[in-house]
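Dear Dr. H.,

I hope your travels went smoothly. While you were away I took the liberty of generating a structure for the chain from your last submission, since the lab meeting agenda had it listed for discussion. I wanted you to have the full record in hand beforehand rather than looking at slides cold. The sequence, exactly as received, is reproduced here:
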Amino acid sequence: MFDGKFALEAMGQIITKGLPVSALIVAATVLISMPLAFLLGLLRFKRVKGITQVSTVLISFFRGVPLVILIFILYSAMPDVLTKLGKLYGWGIDFYNINRIAYAVFICCLFTVAIMSEIFRSALAAVHANQLEAAHSVGLSTVEAYVHIIIPQALVSAIPNLGNNIINLFKGTALVFYMGVADIMGVAKSAAGINYNYLEAYVDVFLVYVVICFVMQKLFEHLERRLGVYNAR
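The corresponding predicted structure, in token form, is as follows:
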């Protein structure tokens, strides 16, 4: 029997306690990952010797491993490895007591940088080479051409894929509850475990993710239209 009263109570906990944690993880991951991913994508686009080969291997690795496996392996290994390094170099940091959210952001960043760098690389490659030649013909340097012409066009073309990636990242944060993080899924499972109301909790989680992802999709579509109009001018 579906317990509507519990579902409402659990929804309140999910929205007030779990959603802010999930949003924090996504926001921190995006803010850290985007500059690093763009730099890596630019270096790969310019085929910088040495960096391209190493980054290709690392990107292939992180893109090919499911996020849940990264969580299980890295979260299990990182505190031990970092603690041993800390003792060796005298850092004096207790890595076992670092907030789980920090570990979650770090793991999500590894996964996200690998994907976003490919998005930026392909977006830069989509800008026609004539744009750089035209910029040089009017007296702009290569750096000025990239800053004022090529990069803005690439960012506009990257918006749809970036939006999809960020939405997938938000959905992927449902896995960090395996680390003990009280995100949307973590709060729902904790509330449901008292009286085994898992059906109600999962329905709440389903509704929250559907609504938030729908809103995010519409926001990215609006941003794409606005930037597309601006770029067309």
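Two observations you may find useful: The mean pLDDT is 88. Residues 4-45 form the longest helix (42 residues).

With kind regards,
E. W.
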